[in-house]
Amino acid sequence: FSPLPAIYGNIIETWYHDGPTYWVRSLPFEPTGNASDKSSHYHTIGGKTIEHSAMITSILASSIFYLHYKSHSNCRDFNSSSINNFKTPNNIEKEFRALINQYSKLLTLTAEKKSRKYKSGYIEYDEYYPAKAKFVIDEIDTVLAQHYGFTEEELDFIINYDIKYRMGKELENYVKGKL
Asked: What's the predicted TM-score (pTM) here?
């Protein structure tokens, strides 16, 4: 196992939001918004290859990582130490490319246009909802659980951790398979 890479710019990037609530918002693409006024809450992690970047995005989106974050942080500040202290299995990059494509597509399709007015001006941006990609996140967790050697019971606990709160009104659709 090795730590996730340190946060620095490289050719391929994963974008993540530093204010997780019930989900860590990690994106395999640059979040949309006014080009002149990007959110200061999004940060990047450089990947070495497309597969490496897909792995980083997948791990940050996973419920396994979310549970780690909730267990090893003050549950308020999400920064590079939250990421760098997480150990990942070696040589698993190739397993996430198809999953991250599904995840990316769902985030994009379910994003909602939002706008805010600040002293500096009017900002429009897309807001992403990882809960709407929960079934893909479950698949990511299943892949990771195999590498960590988790039992089915442990994986079930992780996938369903705080699900009532994490999913909110989307839980009913998720249970019915409509999400």
From this structure: 0.84
